Amino acid sequence: MIEVASPQIEVVADYDMLSKRAAEHILSRLTAQPEYSLLVPTGTTPEGVYALLSKEPQEKFDGLTIFNLDEYCVPTTDGGYTLLDQDDPRSYRTFMKQHLLGTLPNIKSHFPGIENAKQPGTYDEVIAAAGGIDLCLNTMGEDGHTFGFNFSDSSFDSVTRLVEVNESTKNVNAGLTGHDIPAYAVTTGLRTGMQSKEILVLVSGVRKADILKRVLQGDISEEVPATILRTHPNCKWIVDQAAASKL
Ligand code: GLP
């Protein structure tokens, strides 16, 4: 039997307020504990948070280490896989440079690597060796995927590994970015993310209203991976009114 506490949900007016509250949360944690580690997402949801953090003085981030949740991959001619080139406009290394690391280059940054395709969990070992994750800033897709690209039926015990990006997410992300979306990714697992000491989940927009209801009020199951978040002892949600409109 899984113990489930009532989720801590803060409903805010809009995306700007969501970004402001999340940035304040991160900054207050960094003030209290300057040597800090964050597991972080890409996508449209965290862009506002990164924009606000980018305006802060660099010194605030001297002790910060970030670990990204995922990176796209493509197949190679010899039957293997490789990470997208870091200068590819679709790569999440490019995204992080554009949205955060370009202005705050003193942040120590890590990404999951292709070695996890052959040996799942290599990245988890790097995270553990660095002392684990203090806070995971997390988001979820319209189909309930979370902690990067853990799609429906990902095991709750999953670690960092290679996954095939599902069609619906390729379509959503192509619409959001204007790019063709690669077929594969290396993503942290659900277990990887759930080992974070604290989780802050951001959900914005009416396009997430149906899945947010299902994630918060439906059965906890691997069919909807984000439902696992309800079993974390220290998980807080910041959602805007549009996303919360069906709760
Ligand atoms: C990135 C993330 C996905 C997320 C997607 C869209 O691709 N890796 O996990 O689903 O962005 O996210 P958002 O709805 O925040 O734009």
Provide a concise account of the structure shown:
It contains eight helices and eleven strands. With 247 residues, it is α/β, with parallel strands linked by helices.
General description of the model:
30% of the residues lie in helices and 21% in strands. The model has no long low-confidence stretch (mean pLDDT 96). By secondary structure, it is α/β, with parallel strands linked by helices. The strands form two sheets. A seven-stranded parallel beta sheet has the order 1-11-10-7-2-3-6, covered by helices on one side. It is built from eight helices and eleven strands. Helix 1 crosses helix 2. Strand 2 (36-40), helix 2 (47-54) and strand 3 (64-68) form a beta-alpha-beta unit. The protein binds 2-amino-2-deoxy-6-O-phosphono-alpha-D-glucopyranose.
Number-wise, the strands total 11
SS content category: alpha/beta
List ligands, each type once.
2-amino-2-deoxy-6-O-phosphono-alpha-D-glucopyranose
Give a quick account of the main beta sheet: strands, pairing sense, barrel closure.
7 strands, parallel
Reading the helices and strands in chain order gives EHEHEEEHEHHEEHEHEHE
- What is the overall shape? globular
Assembly level? single chain
